[in-house]
Structures are given as structure tokens and as C-alpha cells.
């Protein structure tokens, strides 16, 4: 009997039903949130009371020159990224190939074009006529380089070739993420190298490659603003032309910022949808684990 009473009292010591649940107070979070909201409020207040003519911002938001700059920015993004992706795939395959000559050439390409700043490359391509006055193929054609190397062509080559160096590293990491057994299985059934890449390796590597390439596309949208230096008519260049005429610098910069944010937001949504598409297999595997 005494033993039962002692057991009951011992059990009562560890009973927690009578205890009151007190939620944890995140004091640090509350202070951080309050400071952040205060800073945001001060920033909004500064823009409201600042010397900004918001009616001018609305007036030039859909100005023909700005709209033309938007289309040129999108076109340059597509062309430069297209060139970069093609070069990136080729260079990545060269780097992992067993041919030492191709591998060295690919390494040199990545080393040179990742090392030189994008603005420097744009200026070099735009001034290519100082090195090669003409572009000629004996017996077929001969053109003046200054006529060929327009701001559009120079920007596309400068941005696209540099992008190829970065994309090659993304593609290479994606190719190396595929299990070696997949390569061996493809060779066993008699697939050629190109068939193996197109049908087996690249579809699996896309899950790894899509997120960083999507980020590179978004980065390219903003990188096109560098082309304003060589007089390519993208958003920032056309905004600059307008504020050189009406001296409303901040208002036109806000217009350019608005459109960059719109383009990046749309591309981010598209990237999210593509990532979900290629991540379906991963989600199903996780769900079964």
C-alpha cells in the first residue's frame, strides 16, 4: 500500500496537465520588425514630400520612346540569352569531353570572358572597326566593320558571349549531376553522343539548370542597361534622352525603374512555373519518402 502511494506521488510530480502554456515571446523579432517598418515609413515619406513631379512620371510611363525601349530591352534579352545558352551548352560539352584540345579551348574561353567586365566587352565589340576595318570572306563579300557592328550587334555579341561563359558552368554542373549509370545505359543501347545528350542527359539535367539559368535571364534584363553606353536604345538610354531634354532626371529614372520591376516580376513568375514543371519528379519522390 505504501509502495502504491509513493508511486502515485512520484507520478504526480511529473504531471504537466496543471501547468499553464505560455507562448514564447520573440522580443528580438518584434524590435527588428518595428525598426524595419519605421525605416520603410521614413523612405516612403521622403518620396512623398520630396521634389518629385509624380504627374510627369505618369505622363512618360507609356511614352513612345519608353515603350520602344521596353521592346528593345526584351529583344536584347532574348537574343543575348539565346546566344549565351547555345555557347554555354557547346562550351560545357567541350569541357567535359575527352579531347584535351577542346577542353583547353573551353577553359580559355571561360577564363577570358568571365574575367573581363561586361562594359569593357561592350566597348571592345563596338570599337572593333579600329582593329578590323573590314569583315571579308575572299571571293564572296567584303563589308565595313563600322557598318556591321551597330549598337544592337555589339550589345548582343558583348552580352551574349560573356553570358556563354557563365552559362557553360551552369550547364556543366547540370550534366555532371546526372548519374554516370545513365551515360553507360545510353551507350549500351547504341545511342550516339548527341542522342544521349538530347534524349537522356539534358532532360534530367534541366532540373538542376533551370533555377540558375532563370536567374541569369533576370540578370540579363538589368545588364542590358549597360548597352546605353554604346547608344543602344533600351529603357535606360531612352529615359536618359528624355531627361536630357526636360531636366526631370529623377522622374524618368523612376519610370525606367518601374518597367524593370515589371519585366523582372513577370519573368520571375515564368521561372517559378518552369521550375515547378521540372521539379514534379522530385516532389513525387519526396512525398513517398
Give a description of the structure:
This protein is mainly alpha-helical. It has 13 helices and 2 strands; from the N terminus they run H-H-H-H-H-H-E-E-H-H-H-H-H-H-H. The longest helix is centred in the first third of the chain and has 33 residues, at 64-96. It starts with a helix and ends with a helix. The model is unreliable at 284-289 (pLDDT under 50).
Determine the N-to-C terminus distance. 50 Å
Radius of gyration: 29 Å
Rough outline: flat
- How does the major sheet shape up? 2 strands, antiparallel
Given the helix and strand composition, which structural class is it?
mainly alpha
Number of helices: 13
pLDDT averaged residue by residue: 83
- Beta content comes to under 5%
What oligomeric state is this?
Answer: single chain
Low-confidence stretches: 284-289
- In spatial order, strands of the major sheet run 1-2
Number of strands: 2
Residues in helix, %: over 70%
Amino acid at each position: 500500500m505504501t509502495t502504491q502511494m509513493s508511486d502515485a506521488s512520484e507520478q504526480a510530480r511529473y504531471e504537466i496537465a496543471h501547468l499553464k502554456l505560455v507562448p514564447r515571446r520573440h522580443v528580438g523579432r518584434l524590435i527588428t520588425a518595428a525598426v524595419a517598418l519605421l525605416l520603410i515609413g521614413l523612405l516612403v515619406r521622403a518620396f512623398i514630400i520630396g521634389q518629385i513631379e509624380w504627374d510627369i512620371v505618369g505622363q512618360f510611363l507609356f511614352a513612345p520612346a519608353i515603350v520602344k525601349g521596353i521592346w528593345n530591352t526584351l529583344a536584347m534579352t532574348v537574343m543575348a540569352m539565346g546566344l549565351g545558352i547555345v555557347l554555354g551548352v557547346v562550351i560545357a560539352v567541350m569541357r567535359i569531353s575527352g579531347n584535351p584540345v577542346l577542353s583547353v579551348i573551353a577553359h580559355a574561353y571561360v577564363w577570358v570572358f568571365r574575367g573581363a567586365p561586361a562594359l569593357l566587352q561592350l566597348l571592345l565589340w563596338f570599337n572593333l572597326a579600329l582593329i578590323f576595318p573590314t569583315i571579308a570572306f575572299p571571293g564572296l563579300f567584303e563589308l565595313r566593320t563600322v557598318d556591321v557592328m551597330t549598337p544592337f550587334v555589339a550589345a548582343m555579341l558583348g552580352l551574349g558571349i560573356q553570358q556563354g561563359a557563365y552559362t557553360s558552368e551552369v550547364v556543366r554542373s547540370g550534366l555532371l549531376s546526372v548519374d554516370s549509370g545513365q551515360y553507360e545505359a545510353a551507350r549500351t543501347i547504341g545511342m550516339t553522343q548527341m542522342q544521349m545528350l538530347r534524349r537522356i542527359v539534358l532532360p534530367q539535367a534541366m532540373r538542376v539548370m533551370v533555377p540558375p539559368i532563370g536567374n541569369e535571364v533576370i540578370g540579363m534584363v538589368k545588364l542590358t542597361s549597360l548597352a546605353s553606353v554604346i547608344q543602344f536604345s533600351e529603357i535606360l538610354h531612352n529615359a536618359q534622352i528624355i531627361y536630357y531634354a526636360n531636366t526631370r532626371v529623377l522622374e524618368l529614372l523612376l519610370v525606367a525603374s518601374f518597367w524593370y520591376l515589371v519585366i523582372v516580376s513577370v519573368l520571375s513568375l515564368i521561372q517559378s512555373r518552369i521550375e515547378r514543371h521540372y521539379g514534379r519528379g522530385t516532389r513525387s519522390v519526396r512525398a513517398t519518402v
